[in-house]
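User: Round two. Same drill as before: sequence, then structure, for each protein.

Assistant: Same drill it is. First protein:
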Amino acid sequence: MAGGALKYRHLSRSSSHRQALLRNLVTSLFTHESIKTTWPKAKEAQRLAEKLITLGKKNTSATRRRAQQIFYQPLEHINNLFTTLRQRYLNRPGGYTRVLRIEPLNKHYDQAPSAILELVDGPKDMRFHMTAKTLVRERATEEGVRELTAKNVGKVTRYREGGMEELEKEVRRMEMRVADEGARERARWNVDERPREGWKKERLGRLRQKT
């Protein structure tokens, strides 16, 4: 109907090609837990991924048959969907995936808006890692943790199993990495300064001999 609301994005493809594209994107998402694609494709694939996880939470024979029709490699992903992911999102009412805008993937061509599509509360949850990184930086300051950061901590740990323990573990890991990088940087500068100091002493000795 002219002037009606857009129900879905056609993605400049036929119906069969569009469905094949989305099935491929969702299969890659459940394989790697995070994928990069264009913004419109990410938003459409997100809808299908959310439906799949809802099917996994119901865990009936009908939902298993429906999920097998969507995955390109059902034998590799059905067990993961109905066991690992079902347990991960059992208490979460919704919002199983997240779309994050990034710089265009094809900078030299069409500059199409790009995005990251990821499964939340997983090992590649970008917001979880960014929150841990922010905690490391703010805890090292005199002001301490800001109110906004405290709210983000609650968001990323609310439905995550052992959320606070996992976050603190990630914070400690990042703090150790920062300390190691600082030690290596100081050692590099000390090594660079030694030849300069020796060269300065040698030159000063030569000048004294001439005088």
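Second protein:
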Amino acid sequence: MDITTLWRAPEVNPVNRKARSIPGLNPINMYGRVFTFAWFGFFLAFWSCLLVRLVAGPACDMFGPRYTFAACLLAGSLPTALAGAVTNAKGLLALRFFIGILGGSFVPCQVWSTGFFDKNIVGTANSFTGGFGNAGGGVTYFLMPAIFDSLVSRQHLSAHVAWRVAFIVPFICIVSVAIALLICCPDTPTGKWSERHLRAEQNLAEHGVTGDVVNLPAGFGDKSNSVGTGSPSAGSNEKIDFTATGKVTGNHDHEAQLGQQQMLDTARGEVVQKPTFKEAMHVIFSPQTFVTAGAYFCSFGTELSVNSILGAYYLKNFPTLGQTGTGRWAAMFGLLNIVFRPAGGIFSDFLYRRTGVWGKKSLIHVYAVITGAFLIAIGLTNSKNTSTMFGLIAGMAFFLEGGNGANYSLVPHVHPYANGIVSGFTGAMGNLGGIIFAIIFRYNGTNYGKVFWIIGIITIAINLSLSWIRPIPKGQIGGH
């Protein structure tokens, strides 16, 4: 790996202008700037909501991920500021519901990142933005108490007032980031979201290739609605014919070298389309979407449910650590996302460059089966030894959180013309998994070990049942 890619301007795909490396340490560069705002915006808005994710996905395809991202942050910031005004249980429940809007920011975070980074590196980009964002849940364990302590010790506020005032800090941070990403970053590498089809056609023409970008890719809803030249059916292996003018007028600085057919397939199959309800249902109920959704149901669902009980589980097995100590050890589970989720995306991209899309899909299932084995081991041993328990949890976190990163490395390949829908549905199923697993924990009281091995068995069973499905539909244009 060339470490200079972390700060120098990346090569870009000549058609869709997506970067082929991640300049994560260069916020001056457009791609580095979007990468930074994508992970930092999600970092500030970790808590999630199933409903918002379902809505945010189609909204990304309709209005663009940048505006959807900012809307989620701004809509969720107000209830965050009002948290200190809650005085009863009903108010707390209402607050938790509306703060859940912030959780929907994960979907535009991933869709926006996908729009700026090409298939060879998109898994790494998505896993870093998602992993750094998810780490916000772990940082919260340390940061909010520190803010509270500062208000009490330095501002001399009473504890009753200080915890209420503390919520103003995340409100200011969230609003600032939302406004900054609107001002500093573009919708897409090619410009405005509304002009993405036109820009793709212009880039084709500049590289000596003519042909319209179809309104509906093959297999997306009613084939009769497709327009353009030579669009094959969903089940066809026929390539789209192109006309080469031979005149190349575009600027080739930092551009990757692609063949003319490859450029046309990118334009025809990977430019996001505005969805109708019928088309959205076609995408959601495809077997390929079920793969990413089912795997994320297990991996992110487990992460959410374990996050909610891990401090209590540690306190039960290691009472001498005390509530503060066990809470800090539990927070490490979320903080490991900084390393483990990106590791999954990096390894996924590595396999893709050598084995293709099947490598990405296989990695998801391998990670899931090993995660399930760790969950079963944790549940059956129910260790009272700190080294054993923390070691098993760390091992489980490596494959669990790496599996989350690998999943959103595959998502951009599945129906790339409807990436928002696939991303939103997959993310929502992760929340559904968290809800279901949390219910299982609830109905088993403090018998945490039992629930761990139950979730482990569910994870292995679901992933083995999905392992036979093709990673992308047969005959699909784009996503390969």
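The radius of gyration is 23 Å.

User: Perfect.
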